[in-house]
Design brief:
Elements lengths: L4 E2 L8 E2 L7 H10 L4 H15 L5 E4 L3 E5 L4 E5 L3 H5 L6 E4 L1 H21 L11
Antiparallel strand pairs: 1-2, 3-4, 4-5, 5-6
Length: 129
């Protein structure tokens, strides 16, 4: 079962997957990394719901990875930039089930809430209970 831990050194919530091999560990972190506000997490869950309902080729991305979802699986793919995008570089990938992805996002939502409760800031988003 996939497990992440909260980074202790980050200025915002950050998931780390110490028990997973390269590149899976940073692809999984990248999947969650750009979703550290409730509206971002809710959008991700909405996209998962589309894939669960059978919508083909549900794709979201952030600054690190593409998340390509179907009803039975999720492919995480490294986002390429610059020359890598056009010179034939093969992006690193990993795969997980849609159910695993949803579970991670829901667990991430709770971890983000805890992180903001422990690190209050004036400009922190307000998360529902």
């Amino acid at each position: 079962m996939l497990k992440f831990r909260q980074s202790k050194t980050s200025f915002r919530p950050r998931a780390v997957f110490y028990d997973e091999p390269e590149p899976r560990n940073w692809l999984l972190s990248g999947m969650l990394d750009d979703h550290f506000y409730e509206e971002d997490i809710a959008m991700f869950l909405d996209e998962i719901a589309k894939a669960e309902a059978g919508e083909p080729n549900v794709v979201i991305g952030n600054h690190e990875v593409w998340v390509k979802m179907s009803a039975d699986r999720v492919i995480l793919e490294e986002m390429l930039y610059g020359d890598d995008k056009i010179n034939g570089t093969v992006p690193k990938q990993t795969e997980l089930s849609l159910a695993e992805c949803k579970r991670l996002v829901l667990e991430w939502r709770e971890a983000v809430k805890r992180w903001y409760a422990e690190h209050p800031r004036r400009d922190a988003p307000i998360l529902p209970n």
